[in-house]
Design goal:
58% helix, elongated
Length: 231
């Protein structure tokens, strides 16, 4: 009779197969609709967040761009300065969560997928807004920061203070480096706590507990001396 696979091994094998499948599904099916939805959401909130800085989000040659209302300081033929705003990068946290959830054994799979996706959608929007705010600060201050370089034109606006500018840079790092890894893991951990307690932590505790000592073997019976008369 075949022994069932270790649940931890099943999780690793399922993640190795499910993550590439979910990433392919995201890239070919849901990436463009999600980018369009994020553009619409940014256009809705931009009049309240940046009334004098942002006109909206547009697309050009399959690239999402942030259209700035801040005019360039130098004479330029452009009426508006466009800033890069990647809308597909933040949504990659969704297929990462889907792949981990599909690999985790348990009941109510659709409910777990739905709750985790609803939990991550506000995180995706926050990542887009943080990156947009950093692009505005980069255009206003016109100083390279981290791996980003400012556009060619200078903005006809006062630059941000050094402290505020570095805070926006910290928000950019949070949106680009931290949240794409931490957010799907937190969503997965919060929805699979029973699995983690019973399978992963329980298995680790069992491996760390030393095996019980075997009872000592009973002593061997004494040897009977040979009878000299029997010779």
């Amino acid at each position: 009779m075949r022994r069932p696979l270790d649940p931890l091994l099943r999780l690793l094998l399922g993640a190795a197969a499910g993550l590439p499948a979910c990433l392919a599904f995201w890239w070919w099916v849901v990436r463009e609709p999600l980018a369009q939805g994020l553009a619409q959401a940014t256009n809705i909130v931009s009049p309240w967040l940046w009334p004098d800085a942002i006109l909206g989000v547009g697309f050009r040659e399959q690239r999402s761009l942030l259209v700035s209302l801040l005019p360039p300081l130098t004479d330029s033929a452009q009426l508006f300065v466009t800033l890069p705003l990647p809308l597909s990068r933040p949504t990659v946290i969704l297929p990462l969560f889907w792949g981990l959830t599909l690999a985790t054994p348990g009941r109510a799979l659709l409910r777990r997928l739905l709750f985790g996706t609803l939990f991550l959608l506000p995180v995706v929007c926050a990542m887009v807004l943080l990156y947009a705010q950093f692009q505005i600060a980069l255009y206003r201050t016109h100083l390279p920061l981290l791996t980003e370089t400012p556009p060619i034109d200078y903005a006809l606006a006062l630059p941000d203070s050094p402290i505020l500018y570095h805070l926006w840079g910290l928000g950019r790092q949070l949106a680009v480096l931290v949240l794409p890894v931490v957010a799907p893991l937190l969503a997965w951990l919060s929805l699979h706590r029973p699995f983690l307690r019973t399978v992963i932590l329980g298995g680790l505790l069992q491996r760390n507990v030393p095996a019980a000592r075997k009872p000592p073997a009973p002593p061997a019976p004494p040897a009977v001396p040979a009878d000299p008369e029997a010779r």
